[in-house]
Design a protein that fits this description.
Layout lengths: L7 H5 L8 H4 L2 H5 L2 H4 L9 E6 L13 E6 L14 H11 L1 E3 L5 E4 L6 E6 L12 H4 L2 H14 L4 E3 L14 H11 L12
Parallel strand pairs: 1-5, 1-6, 2-5
Antiparallel strand pairs: 3-4
Length: 197
């Protein structure tokens, strides 16, 4: 698949959409007509909170774009470990990846490459053995609600919540009450699009 377009404003920002490598495989660039919006907006001045498994701030295509908030999951997992930041980094890259290398032609280009990411860890990787630990899983809905509050209080204009309810501890008593409180308080402060990952 080759991607071809003309956008002087975008080219001035230093981004190139290459017809080969990883960027040629990024279906969202052409499928969602992302590159056509770049002359008008690339996400500059927008903070997107990624509430998930954590985001690797050193990932080359996100370098300089990530602020790390708290780990509210209660898991004790640390950055760089095998059960930390895999899904969250993927999501953040799809949102705000800015590529790297000459002309930023290498690596991942996201939908809004000039946006900033606020990472708040509120869930576990799908394959994390701690998902079966009920003491941790039971606390995740509260972590998600607290993460939403944290994100809004720290300037997030968009919140990405890439959760699979089957692995995020969202089962059992109390779920509806915790979410209801969050939804009632939060919509007055920001806007959220809920997308299933």
């Amino acid at each position: 698949m080759a991607i071809s377009w003309t956008a002087p404003a975008h080219a001035a920002a230093g981004y190139v959409v290459a017809g080969q490598g990883v960027q040629a495989q990024e279906w969202w660039l052409s499928g969602l007509h992302v590159t056509q919006t770049w002359p008008d907006t690339e996400g500059a001045g927008v903070t997107v909170a990624v509430l998930g498994t954590g985001v690797d701030a050193q990932y080359p295509d996100l370098a300089g774009s990530v602020s790390t908030g708290p780990d509210l999951s209660g898991s004790g997992r640390t950055a760089g470990g095998p059960f930390w930041g895999i899904n969250g980094t993927e999501v953040a890259g799809t949102i705000a990846g800015h590529g790297h290398g000459t002309g930023r032609a290498d690596g991942l280009l996201g939908i809004a490459p000039m946006a900033k990411i606020l990472s708040v860890r509120v869930s576990l990787e799908y394959n994390d053995p701690l998902n079966s630990d009920q003491a941790i899983a039971r606390k995740l809905p509260r972590a998600i609600a607290s993460g939403i509050v944290y994100a809004v209080d720290h300037g997030a204009r968009i919140i990405a919540l890439p959760l699979d309810p089957g692995t995020a501890g969202l089962t059992g008593q109390g779920r509806r009450t915790r979410w209801a409180r969050t939804w009632c308080w939060w919509p007055r402060r920001a806007t959220m699009a809920r997308v299933r990952a």
